[in-house]
Amino acid sequence: MSNDPVDTEDHMDRLHRAIDRQATDQIWRLLNNTMVPAEVAHALESSPPREREELWTQVGPETQGEVLLYLSEEVQDEFLDRMDAAELLTATENLDTDDLADLLQRLPTSSIQQVLDSMEAQERERVETVLSYPEDTAGGLMDTDTITIRPNITLDVVLRYIRRHEELPQSTDVLWVVTRRDELIGRLSINKLLVCDPSMSVREIMDTDFIRLDALASQNDVAQLFERHDLISAPVLNERGQLVGRITIDDVVDVIRDSAEHTVMSMAGLDEEDDTFAPALRTTRRRAIWLGINLLTAFLASSVIGMFEGTIQKITALAVLMPIVASMGGIAGSQTLTVLIRGIALGHVKTNNVRWLLGREMIAGMLNGVLWAAVVAALAIVWFDDWMLGGVIALAIVINLVVASLTGTLLPVLLKRLSIDPALSGSVILTTVTDVVGFLSFLGLASVIYL
Amino acid sequence: MSNDPVDTEDHMDRLHRAIDRQATDQIWRLLNNTMVPAEVAHALESSPPREREELWTQVGPETQGEVLLYLSEEVQDEFLDRMDAAELLTATENLDTDDLADLLQRLPTSSIQQVLDSMEAQERERVETVLSYPEDTAGGLMDTDTITIRPNITLDVVLRYIRRHEELPQSTDVLWVVTRRDELIGRLSINKLLVCDPSMSVREIMDTDFIRLDALASQNDVAQLFERHDLISAPVLNERGQLVGRITIDDVVDVIRDSAEHTVMSMAGLDEEDDTFAPALRTTRRRAIWLGINLLTAFLASSVIGMFEGTIQKITALAVLMPIVASMGGIAGSQTLTVLIRGIALGHVKTNNVRWLLGREMIAGMLNGVLWAAVVAALAIVWFDDWMLGGVIALAIVINLVVASLTGTLLPVLLKRLSIDPALSGSVILTTVTDVVGFLSFLGLASVIYL
Lengths: 451, 451
Prior knowledge:
Chains A, B: One of its GO terms (molecular function) is magnesium ion transmembrane transporter activity. The structure is a homodimer of 451-residue chains. Chain A is mostly helical and 451 residues long. Chain A has helices spanning 7-20, 24-34, 37-45, 49-57, 61-69, 73-80, 85-92, 97-104, 109-117, 121-131, 138-141, 155-163, 190-195, 202-205, 219-229, 249-267, 280-306, 309-314, 317-345, 351-384, 387-417, 422-450; strands spanning 148-149, 174-178, 184-189, 213-214, 233-237, 243-248. A three-stranded mixed β-sheet of chain A has the order 1-2-3. A three-stranded mixed β-sheet of chain A has the order 4-5-6. In chain A, strand 2 (174-178) and strand 3 (184-189) form a beta hairpin. In chain A, helix 1 packs antiparallel against helix 2, helix 5 packs across helix 7 (85-92) and helix 16 runs parallel beside helix 22 (422-450). The radius of gyration of chain A is 29 Å and the shape is elongated. Chain A starts with 6 loop residues before the first helix and ends with a helix. At the A-B interface, helix 1, helix 3, helix 12, helix 13 and strand 4 of A face helix 1, helix 3, helix 12, helix 13 and strand 4 of B.
């Protein structure tokens, strides 16, 4: 059975053809035999509500748990809400501790208890360890299924010990060397175990210089460490230095994608866990909030214009040109804001280099302000045959672009310091500033000069 | 030497203190002994030009190659441009083939030849294999450093063969089983090798059901496969089914981050490879283009307003309220656009479900249109004591939100089909539409009703 990059597409196509023909048998075979759980999850995420519903009923009870893992939180909740305790137990039976803990964290406390009660003591203890840490920390992300060895045995003993396992935990690339009190003192990579002389002791060849994760470290810090050090797995320690679990790269890939997606979704007032195929009413309700917030800022801008109704009545060209001033400021500001938000997310922007960035942005804002002010002024003069108007709009554009650069740089830094997500609220505040300053400077200058 | 999540921060702090005190020795030690190449790259990326310059001169010639790998393309180019052939040779001496090929792809042809000429025949052939594939394909991403075995030997022979290596290639989790003609027929995981009976043959225990990558598959397809199947590594085959290399998860993590960052940067007319600390003039030049494009659309909107100067002169309230109509359309449209762009990037949105999405978005646009039209109308009536004005703005908002939903859904799908990046051009086109339709519907309706 050969797989290649087009296979997922092929599976999806066959699934859609089967749905069109209502070939229930074939749908069932595709979902439960041909496709891997991640593909089934992808098919569910790519389906409108009714079709998604039908597909889900065709996913076998034992497969459901694995499929749930790959769904976004919103879609997960949709299905979890409707599963009873028995269904949950069947679905979660074969999951790894970290995956199981992920799902449990989305359930009400009573259901969590039911699932825990059904488990063997050792397994339950493991899941409870993971659940004892917040979801977005190393402890919440980790898997407790690790292989530990003692430092004083020989590699030969290790090899024989390993051979007693039927299989090793997924992505096992190292064995952890611990003391009698479970304190982590080293690691032995499987590859070294294979190439070194079996009569040597673990202590002789174990690494001691590697990344250790604090169980309470945030998942974003964990992701940065994995990216920076090209890690495949890393040990997680509690505050006493004891090994409590390990994190593998496949858990971190999701964190990396989510954190990168978070910015683009937040800037439009959306959430990275949103369901692409959420029903119309839920979508309407969610979007309404963001539109309402933006309406407030639009009214603020309008009230600024309202202050200059008299001026506009005399020179209607002002009404024609004023959106240009606001829009140029908005664009320039959002470019600066995006660069800063990304710089902060990547850890490039720190207290010690914000001053340099501010200077750079002010210069860029000023230069682009002067450049485009000249262009707009020339066009305005030609259009309305009014030199004064050209001067006023030029000055207003320079002012607005400099203010936009200033705001775009300092606002995200300030919001971050106040622990407010700059990606979510930054663009709304910025647009308010550039609209208000744009209208105020343009109409204000015009009032002073013409009246 | 213990490492924990705060260590990178600690290294950065110590580096900054050393820079402030101009403690050259300590800077050198930190960059070349204490910090790993990825941390050095992070320090360079987080530094303004002059400081970055100073730091780079302190990075040892042999470390430079590794550090270059972790830099964004813009910063890479900055340093590569100034290195002569001898420096390049020293820096690239110890790199893996895939990493070396990555760097070479950024050099002029003459420099590539010089580096290739300096290499041993076997090594050169490997790099040339990678270079023969486009940079953004599986072949361009792969590493040729694989361990292959034959199917008919026993595990015991494999174990002895492996023991002859001093070390295995990084992240080796499987051995590849090939025929005499290098055709891939299976894989043997290291973990299985450790737990199975050594007298068994490779053929008996090898897997044959796993993901194979076509060397010409796009890197985005590769990334999706890794994410979907939780892969650590995957084999790359040429068109004859021969094993030409393997891709490991650490190469894919970069692709995943870049593709997710691409959307947010493109929507602001920026590039994910942009240097956060690019100098002021380069920044100005780059931003100028985007501002120029947006100025065109702003003038288009202004020309629409210009058509109604007479109406505005009579009813200046129109000038006060018109930005609200345009702004509400822009926000609603950009929400729809963002959901669609992300849905397309994740592979959720396909020809067969666009119709459902369009329906959902039109309903949401209509409902939010009616809701906020009512609110704005009420406020307008109170503010200007004009019932007619309330009716006009309400109707204009409903029209603009419905058009925004329509455009936000169909535009990215259309652009994608024309192979134009929807993240880059989508928001400019969308804003133009919502501005023009907003002003046209509001001022047009007002002209018909009042005049």
